[in-house]
Specification:
This protein is an alpha/beta fold. About 35% of the residues lie in helices and about 15% in strands.
């Protein structure tokens, strides 16, 4: 007769051998699988979720200026640059240290553009951005931004995902995961004309989050915005009725599989993506059709003028998506080159071309959103991956500067006509009320009613979050 008392179970074997490391690993795997199991596999995972606390904003429009616009030539007025122009002074520059292992003297370079004070707040803005300058009383400037990385790739990834080198979910994916979508007929996270370089699809990726939460691309960089469409939105072969019959069959098969594979996030994503794709056939074309917009609206965004036509359309599309209930919208002023648009290591004069292309569209977006009452619950966020140095490079350019630069916010929950933080007298390094990119991410989530320390996802044995183990909410920015 078999002595059952002498048998060793697999669980006991794992617990007793090799110091119990097998049992620890097994427990971790079970915990991870349990943590990643969809709580409701038969319902839409993008259904609206309750925020953790009362939100100040319901959605965000992020206007991404790829390449790093120079803050000392745009919104961070430094009169000392003119006084010291041409002098060789010592700067402890991150980029120079990264390249040479030391730092030395650099030749100060004044701004090529005159600064003027605008609005009741009297904020200084250069002649590059006169239209945005007229909106300063609605803006909240953060002049003390600093970030990780000194090259475009790492710094762009950090701006979009909170890391310089790991495969991590993007800001929009975290928001989609935390709040769901306001409108089940369109994606909760849309990126307009994204670039394929300097982060590329990782800038709107879901990474290890379930696939429901990835960004949906509308057009691509290098393609005219008037041709931007959602890919594969039309089925030219089958009628909607026949597609619905096919969808019902597929959904019944997938639901049967989900009963026995409840932990399969990818399968759950397929089930819901089919439904969303079917609904988008009816609603998405209207979202991108601007024919109903008035001429005065087109003029407000600069649509029709050669310099502003393209980005004006992108900004108007962003307004329509915010109006329809998309949670997070990226508007990319970007291209697909290794040298991004605002990256003037020489010929800083080309900043004027990019400012001309974006100034009126961004100002138009702010005006239009305000007139329609959309700024009451929508936050606009403008910025690049870093700024540029106050000293000369290659005769007439500026190098990257991650140590101090400017972003601005506008709309729901933030102060108007307000400036926060400061760089030093040359604009080289943030010195007052410093705001790290992790802090900006934490603040954006807070405005949406999300605690950045509690919005986590278990992956590879640990809880990940957008701000990793850092970040503070900058409450001084709140109205």
């Amino acid at each position: 007769m078999l002595d059952t008392n002498s048998l060793v179970s697999r669980r006991n074997l794992l617990r007793s051998s090799a110091c119990g490391f097998g049992s620890l690993a097994f427990s971790g795997l079970l915990s991870q699988a349990q943590g990643n199991t969809p709580s409701i596999v038969h319902q839409n995972p993008l259904a609206p979720q309750e925020p953790m606390f009362p939100p100040r904003a319901k959605r965000i429009i992020f206007i991404f200026m790829q390449g790093g616009p120079s803050h000392v030539d745009t919104f961070d007025y430094k009169p000392l640059l003119a006084k010291k122009n041409g002098e060789e002074l010592e700067f402890k520059d991150s980029r120079t240290i990264a390249k040479t292992g030391k730092f030395g003297k650099e030749k100060v370079m004044q701004s090529l553009w005159k600064f003027r004070q605008y609005g009741e707040s009297g904020h200084w803005v250069s002649d590059l951005f006169p239209e945005i300058g007229r909106q300063v009383d609605d803006l909240c400037f953060v002049h003390s931004m600093h970030t990780n990385g000194v090259a475009h790739g790492p710094s762009t990834l950090f701006l979009h995902t909170g890391t310089t080198n790991l495969i991590m979910p993007s800001v929009g994916s975290w928001i989609n995961y935390g709040l769901g979508t306001e409108n089940e007929n369109i994606p909760g996270f849309i990126t307009i004309s994204p670039s394929s370089s300097n982060g590329g699809p990782r800038n709107f990726s879901n990474a290890f989050l379930p696939s429901h939460y990835q960004g949906t691309a509308l057009g691509r960089a290098g393609q005219p915005a008037n041709k931007a469409r959602f890919n594969n939105i039309k089925n030219e072969q089958w009628s909607l009725n026949k597609q619905r019959q096919q969808l019902k069959l597929l959904q019944s098969l997938n639901q049967s599989q989900l009963q026995s594979h409840k932990e399969d996030d990818e399968l759950a994503a397929v089930v819901n993506s089919f439904e969303l794709a079917f609904r988008m056939q009816q609603y998405a074309p209207g979202l991108t059709d601007l024919s109903s917009e008035s001429k005065s609206t087109f003029d407000m965004y600069g649509i029709g003028a050669p310099e502003t036509e393209d980005f004006g359309r992108q900004c108007l599309l962003a307004r329509r998506m915010a109006e329809a209930g998309t949670r997070y919208i990226q508007v990319n002023y970007a291209d697909n080159g290794n040298t991004p648009r605002w990256d003037q290591h020489s010929n800083i004069q080309k900043h004027a071309f990019h400012a001309k292309a974006t100034d009126k569209p961004v100002a138009g977006l702010i005006q239009d959103m305000k007139q329609r009452g959309l700024l009451e619950d929508t936050l606009i966020w403008w910025g690049g991956e870093f700024g540029r140095n106050p000293f000369l490079q290659n005769g007439d350019g500026r190098d990257h500067n991650p140590k101090g630069f400017t972003h601005f916010l506008c709309g729901a929950g933030v102060k108007s006509g307000f400036s926060y933080g400061a760089t030093d007298e040359f604009g080289h390094e943030a010195v007052e009320n410093k705001v790290h990119m992790h802090d900006m991410h934490a603040t954006l989530l807070h405005l949406l009613g999300i605690d950045h320390e509690r919005l986590t996802y278990r992956h590879a044995g640990r809880d990940f979050r957008l701000t990793d183990v850092e970040g503070r909410v900058v409450t001084d920015l709140f109205a």
